[in-house]
Amino acid sequence: MTDYRNNCRFKRFIKPFFIHESSHSKRHVHARTLLFSILLSLFVSQSTACSLFPSAENEFPGSKALTVSASGHGKRHTVESILKPQAPGAMTAANSDGSIVLDYSNTADGYIMIKDTHDTTTQIQIKGPDGVTYPFPLNSHDFTAFPLSHGNGHYEVSVLEQISGNNYAVSLSQGFDVSLKDEFGPYLYPNQYVKYTDSSNAVLLGRKLSAQSDSDLSYINNVYNYILKHVKYDDVQAASIQPNYIPDADTTLRTGKGICFDYAVLMTAMLRSQNIPTRLEVGYVGKVYHAWISVYTKDKGWINNTIYFDGKNWSLMDPTLAANNSNAAIRKFTGDGSNYVVRYLY
């Protein structure tokens, strides 16, 4: 039996780096003592570079990607328009020259919007009421959504711009209180890691699968089975993944291959676009850093650590594991779910 936990290719890019405060004082912080420096490079390199499983030989249908086969009779209501993050400008903060703007008008919906028009490497830190700091890369000049995954309470957001190498300056910081009007809000919108629009192929495919589904559970099962059939693990990509990697659901759909982060993001996009609350989760499966999902349905509540439906019962389902191994191998490895330890929710 293959020991999947020892097959992960870790690429650690942990280096000391400097944060320059607005007072121009400089302090050197080692990566082990500063969460941001660790996760700035470690998050993607670990969570996505895990070559956990032998590849499955599934041929992707290419231009026929939207020709689908699914179980069900189409009783489910299909959502025809996604929830779109907005930056209305009602509550904002900006740096001195206005090149960086934080719009926190819609915190009640579970997200903020940030844009930086500078041509520099930008990192975002979001610290929630639980004291955990989430790092994000920002690679667009347009407003980009970032989730407020910590629930209700006080948040602190910092925008850091690269000066050179591992030297970053805090260009903007802002605190605010959050009271969610819907606890599922952070898991219903696209964001920096789960990007999609109404015209995304992943969204269009989701609508086709939904139209052939009887219920939310039926739709989840159809999405799951489609990904298992048409996406295989990409060992080459896993071996060469770079820090600050951001998956693209349509690219995974088009190429028919990806790493664990790609699998999880594709399924998350397809489920959220049909108004099914879906948590993109990053953490450890045993000793392996990995990405998976959990979903919420009205009938079942949160189905944690993802799910597998055998026609009668739901059990653990991890898109990467399931696409590359037998059901027996999956269940022997995942067990009762205790192997899954969540570190971040997106």
The CATH class of the largest domain is identified as Alpha Beta
Give the beta-strand count. 18
Q: Strand-residue fraction?
A: 25-35%
Helix content: 10-25%
Predict the CATH topology of the largest domain: C8orf32 fold
End-to-end Cα distance: 33 Å
Average pLDDT rating: 75
Structural class: alpha+beta
Strand order of the largest sheet: 2-1-10-9-6-7
From the alpha carbons, calculate the radius of gyration and give it in angstroms.
20 Å
**Annotation field: number of helices:** 8
> How many domains comprise the coordinates?
2
What is the string of helix and strand elements?
A: EEHEEEEEEEEHHEHHEHEEEEEHHE
Largest beta-sheet details: 6 strands, mixed
CATH architecture of the largest domain: Roll
Global outline:
globular
Low-confidence stretches: 1-67, 306-323, 327-335
Organism: Eubacterium cellulosolvens (strain ATCC 43171 / JCM 9499 / 6) (Cillobacterium cellulosolvens)
Domain Transglutaminase-like: 252-321
Keywords: Hydrolase, Protease
Protein name: Transglutaminase-like enzyme, predicted cysteine protease
Defining key terms:
C8orf32 fold, 28% strand, 18 strands, 2 domains, hydrolase, Immunoglobulin-like, four-stranded antiparallel β-sheet
Write the layout of secondary structure elements.
Blueprint: E1 17-20, E2 26-29, H1 35-47, E3 92-94, E4 100-103, E5 111-116, E6 122-127, E7 133-138, E8 144-147, E9 153-164, E10 167-178, H2 201-211, H3 216-230, E11 232-233, H4 235-240, H5 249-255, E12 257-258, H6 260-272, E13 278-285, E14 288-297, E15 301-303, E16 308-309, E17 314-315, H7 319-324, H8 327-334, E18 340-345
Parallel strand pairs: 1-10, 11-12
Antiparallel strand pairs: 1-2, 3-4, 4-5, 5-8, 6-7, 6-9, 9-10, 13-14, 13-18, 14-15, 16-17
